């Protein structure tokens, strides 16, 4: 079983910055991809950014140039640096990790962390 613990959300004014962290622990053999999703009230969950074990990175168009995803393989941790935040970035942010455990493949979600950007 793999657990994800997120941290770093909060309230910030427009134009400000926040850094989210997500640490994975448990029976992990390898990680293939780590990503961040977000869900605003009344909207579907959407991909924000994803990084693969091979170093490929993709961002949602709405965050390109403002957000940066990075990973620390030694710590099984993924980060999301969010700069120039806008009110429309307000959402619950979820970490997602996919990989292989000691007995099977896994795909796990974090508990979510609230990001609120005031205008």
Describe the structure.
The protein is 0% helix and 63% strand. With 119 residues, the chain is mainly β. The strands form two sheets. Strands 2, 4, 5, 6, 9, 10 and 11 form a seven-stranded mixed beta sheet that branches. Strands 1-3-8-7 form a four-stranded antiparallel beta sheet, with no helix packed on it. A hairpin with a 4-residue loop joins strand 7 (67-72) and strand 8 (77-82). It is elongated.
Describe the structure in brief.
With 119 residues, the chain is an all-beta fold.
Structural class: mainly beta
Order of helices and strands: EEEEEEEEEEE
- Give the fraction of residues assigned to helices: under 10%
pLDDT < 50 stretches: none
Give the overall average pLDDT: 96
The shape, in one word, is: elongated
In total, the number of strands is 11
Structure annotation, total helices: 0
End-to-end C-alpha gap: 40 Å
Q: What would you report as the Rg, rounded to the nearest angstrom?
A: 14 Å
Provide the β-strand percentage band.
Answer: over 45%
- Main sheet makeup: 7 strands, mixed
Describe the secondary structure blueprint for this structure:
Layout: E1 2-7, E2 10-13, E3 18-26, E4 28-39, E5 46-52, E6 57-59, E7 67-72, E8 77-82, E9 91-101, E10 105-109, E11 113-118
Parallel strand pairs: 2-11
Antiparallel strand pairs: 1-3, 3-8, 4-5, 4-9, 5-6, 7-8, 9-10, 9-11
Give descriptors for this structure.
single chain; mainly beta; seven-stranded mixed beta sheet; four-stranded antiparallel beta sheet
């Amino acid at each position: 079983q793999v657990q994800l613990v997120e941290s770093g959300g909060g309230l910030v004014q427009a134009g400000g910055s926040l850094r989210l962290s997500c640490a994975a622990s448990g029976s992990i053999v390898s990680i293939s991809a780590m990503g961040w999703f977000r869900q605003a009230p009344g909207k579907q969950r959407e991909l924000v950014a994803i990084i693969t074990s091979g170093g490929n990175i993709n961002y949602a168009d709405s965050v390109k140039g403002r957000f940066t995803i990075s990973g620390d393989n030694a710590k099984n941790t993924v980060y999301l640096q969010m700069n120039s935040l806008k009110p429309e970035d307000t959402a619950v942010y979820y970490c997602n990790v996919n990989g292989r455990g000691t007995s099977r493949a896994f795909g796990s979600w974090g508990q979510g962390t609230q990001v609120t950007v005031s205008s």
